[in-house]
DNA sequence: GTCCAGGATCGGA
DNA sequence: TCCGATCATGGA
């Protein structure tokens, strides 16, 4: 018989400059919200978490040691030394150094591959508040209830049996048929996300783009946020703007093995500093 | 009313 | 291969 695991607060001494607000609000995830008491709450891998920062500590509230070891430690990418990553990125040039200094507390969240794929299909030609709304409705209508008012992200096989009109409730427009195509191909095994995760990146890109509604940008986001491929470098309208204005002499490949993290710092910088 | 949002697809040059 | 129109929806 399975007994309840002991829940408790888990305190982490802040490694690097880990900043919750920047990490959750930099456009890589859509299921974390700030609470009245200046914490954040969200769901990942079917687990709810409330997390907060107090001076020199990050506090994971009411969680268990197992969940920390099995889920959150990886999810928050706690094994990677971001001070080292930043020191490498700063070698690129002075502009990159300045941008690293702007929001050095961002970490790449190691999200579930299917959730990342599905979320970024929804993100196309869309804005972040509406993306969050659509994903909320997706979870409330087709996920299962984890606890009061908290829902899981529906799995591919849970969506694969639906038809187009079932998704009308999401109000996601032309993206419905893309979500269903992805769900069918992933649940049938025609597209195997676990295999793609380990492929050479060019082949991985091609495989993901076999799904309708998945082009270069969505594939790149899936690789970076859902498959921890830090060399992936998503180029959206903001990044194109930044590459023109700031890095006109550079290409994605010039940012090295941590290009994805560089991209995240650049994206956050240009999106929160847009002028003229 | 027009424009835009972490784009992709389609048809026609 | 490249380019413009189009795709739903909602907020500014």
Nutshell version of this structure?
45% of the residues lie in helices and 12% in strands. It is α+β, with helices and mostly antiparallel strands and 276 residues long.
If helices are DSSP runs of H or I spanning 4 or more residues, what is the number of helices? 13
* Main sheet properties: 5 strands, antiparallel
Query: What Rg do the Cα atoms give?
Result: 19 Å
- Strand % is 5-15%
Which structural category do the helix and sheet elements fall into? Answer: alpha+beta
Principal-axes shape call:
globular
Oligomer: single chain
Helical proportion, percent range: 40-55%
Order of SSEs, N→C? EHEEEEHHHHHEEHHHHHHH
Poorly predicted runs? none
Mean pLDDT: 95
Distance between the termini: 63 Å
List the helices and strands and how they pair.
Elements: E1 8-13, H1 20-24, E2 32-34, E3 40-44, E4 47-54, E5 57-63, H2 65-75, H3 82-89, H4 94-102, H5 113-122, H6 128-142, E6 145-147, E7 150-151, H7 156-159, H8 176-188, H9 193-198, H10 201-208, H11 216-226, H12 237-245, H13 259-272
Antiparallel strand pairs: 1-5, 2-3, 3-4, 4-5, 6-7
Helix pairs in contact: 4-13, 5-8, 5-11, 10-11, 12-13
This protein binds a DNA duplex (13 and 12 nucleotides) through residues 27-28, 120, 123-131, 133-134, 171-176, 178, 212-218, 221, 234-239, 267, 271.
């Amino acid at each position: 018989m399975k007994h309840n695991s002991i829940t408790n607060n888990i305190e982490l001494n802040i490694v690097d400059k880990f900043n919750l607000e920047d990490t959750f609000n930099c456009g890589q995830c859509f299921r974390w919200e700030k609470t009245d008491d200046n914490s954040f709450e969200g769901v990942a891998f079917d687990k709810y978490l409330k997390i907060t920062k107090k001076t020199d500590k990050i506090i994971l509230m009411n969680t268990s040691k197992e969940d920390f070891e099995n889920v959150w430690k990886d999810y928050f990418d706690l094994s990677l030394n971001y001070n080292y990553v930043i020191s490498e990125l700063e070698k690129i040039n002075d502009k990159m150094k300045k941008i690293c200094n702007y929001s050095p507390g961002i970490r790449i969240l190691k999200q579930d591959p299917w959730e990342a794929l599905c979320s970024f299909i929804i993100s196309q030609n869309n804005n972040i508040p509406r993306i969050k709304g659509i994903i909320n409705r997706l979870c409330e209508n087709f996920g299962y209830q984890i606890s009061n008012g908290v829902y899981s992200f529906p799995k591919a096989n849970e969506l694969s049996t639906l038809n187009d009109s079932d998704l009308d409730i999401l109000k996601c427009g032309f993206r419905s048929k893309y979500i269903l195509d992805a769900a069918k191909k992933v649940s049938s095994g025609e597209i195997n996300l676990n295999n793609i995760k380990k492929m050479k990146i060019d082949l991985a890109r091609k495989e993901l783009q076999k799904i309708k509604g998945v082009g270069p940008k969505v594939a790149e986001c899936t690789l970076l946020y859902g498959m921890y491929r830090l060399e992936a470098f998503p180029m959206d309208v903001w990044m194109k703007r930044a590459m023109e204005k700031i890095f006109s002499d550079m290409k994605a490949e010039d940012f090295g093995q941590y290009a994805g993290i560089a991209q995240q710092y650049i994206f956050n910088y240009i999106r929160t500093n847009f002028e003229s």
